Amino acid sequence: MNAMNTKTQKDPYSELEQRKQEAGLVDQKTVDKRHKAGYLHARERIEQLVDPDSFLEIDRYALHECGDFGMEERKAFGDGVITGQAKIDGRPVYLFAHDATFVGGALGEVFARKVCKVMDLAKNAGCPVIGLNESGGARIQEGVKSLAGYADIFYRNVQCSGVIPQISIVYGACAGGAVYSPAVTDFTIMVKDKSFMFVTGPEIVKTVTGEEVTLEDLGGARVHNTKSGVAQLMAQDEASSFAMARRLLSYLPSNNMELTPISSEEVIPPKGAGELRQVVPVDPTKPYNMIDVLTRIFDEESFFELSPLYAANIITGFARLNGTAVAVVANQPKWLAGCLDINASTKAARFVRFCDAFNIPLITFVDVPGYLPGTNQEFDGIIRHGAKLLYAYCEATVPKLTVITRKAYGGAFDVMGSKNVGGDYNFAWPTAEIAVVGAQAAVNLLYRKEVKSQAKEYLSERVSEYKDKFANPYIAAQLGYVDDVILPEQTRDHLIRALDMQKNKRVERPARKHGNIPL
């Protein structure tokens, strides 16, 4: 009897190996078809994103329990999502990857439970969480369980917000509930011509509104990087999306209790610092590219721009200053003369709030003639949206350093990291003009009667007089609104020394549940 039992008893180790093989099996024909279309399988994406041999899978044997609409015959280990932990450049992360080869990556109860588990683990461990998204949305066959699963994920997105960095990379088509989680995360990367995000697809749009629109024009990577601002980066292909995510992560602390990262690599100062005087024209009406200024101040090849295609009149991104990761916000005179408008205000405000949540110092470069005028801006709420940026700077308690390169007019001067909204060190170049309005506009207002009757020479004298009395950095420096007027080529050194003194800055705020930002 014992001998017979020994013969029929399963070998538990062989069974484990068999199940592991089954859990990792993919239909090669399906994978080959995806490769031909330019898409990787979920497992391949994880392998290319993380450090070699660092991925530890969680819940690989999970199976759904749905028995409706033929789902009892459609089961696969993992239930359409691969979850686990890994390392990127030696740093621990948690991640999940939708497997679109199983019911289109649609989310069901078990699928959601797996994602929630890694998000909980990530928050408790203080590690970033990265989502590789390719999903058709809620699994219709599971009804309200799918909707509840999405809500569980959204709830965790919000609980993790400001605690650990959350990065989303979108592949293929993401629809319905599958787009809201990426929208709540901190950064979203899409792939050119391969990624799509929309609440309702082209067919439903046509049915409801009569509009005919393609996938690309409705929710493609270019649309969300240029028009909606939903995505912050657009990769040329999947391989470059992984490189973008790794680079982005290198500037971020793992959680809100850590300080900004300091690079272990040798610091390479930028080239061309002596050319800054030539880069920025003295004439305030002449445009220039602020990127040319930034790359001559921060560590060599360290500037990493975010949302470069959206609201290009303001620049946001990360850089390194003497090895320390910093955040950069800068007006871009090359676009709309650097004016602040609705999109620029919301773009910069969200970025500032992220950096403040994760202890990343803010360095602001100012060349702004004011808020963009016009009925469209006023009707669409420039007052409310513009106040978001004001709120974000006032709220931020991280080190805040500001450099005024040229124009700083009106309320835009206040908003862009001025002393009065908590700026720690504010420097100005000799070319800076700090005033309520530009000199010519001021004269037109102050001498409106004389404008019609007086000669041009008289008005020219009044413009020069206004510049001497108001539109220069020395008046602001006398009053303490600017800490020092410096030469452009001294900017890097002054910022390094100022940041070194402010790196342990602490600010106590009044006890409250939270403020009420003008959303």
Polypeptide structure, described:
By secondary structure, this protein is of the alpha/beta class. It is 39% helix and 18% strand. Helix 14 packs parallel to helix 16 and helix 18 packs across helix 20.
What topology emerges from the helices and strands here?
Layout: H1 2-8, H2 12-24, H3 28-37, H4 42-49, E1 56-58, E2 81-88, E3 91-98, H5 109-125, E4 129-133, H6 144-160, E5 166-175, H7 180-184, E6 187-198, H8 202-209, H9 215-219, H10 221-226, E7 233-235, H11 238-250, H12 276-279, H13 290-294, E8 304-306, E9 314-321, E10 324-331, H14 342-357, E11 362-368, H15 375-379, H16 382-395, E12 400-409, H17 410-415, E13 425-428, E14 433-435, H18 439-446, H19 448-453, H20 456-469, H21 473-478, E15 484-485, H22 491-502
Parallel strand pairs: 3-4, 4-5, 5-6, 6-7, 10-11, 11-12, 12-13, 12-14, 13-15
Antiparallel strand pairs: 1-2, 2-3, 8-9, 9-10
Helix pairs in contact: 5-6, 14-16, 18-20
Could you name the key traits of this structure?
single chain; 8-stranded mixed beta sheet; 22 helices; 519 residues; 18% strand
Terminal CA distance reads 75 Å
Helix content: 25-40%
Quickly give the structural class.
alpha/beta
Number of beta strands: 15
- Characterize the main sheet: 8 strands, mixed
Number of discrete helical segments: 22
User: Which word captures the global form?
Assistant: elongated
> What's the mean pLDDT score?
92
Strand content: 15-25%
Radius of gyration: 27 Å
Please mark out the parts with pLDDT under 50 across 5 or more consecutive residues, or reply none.
none
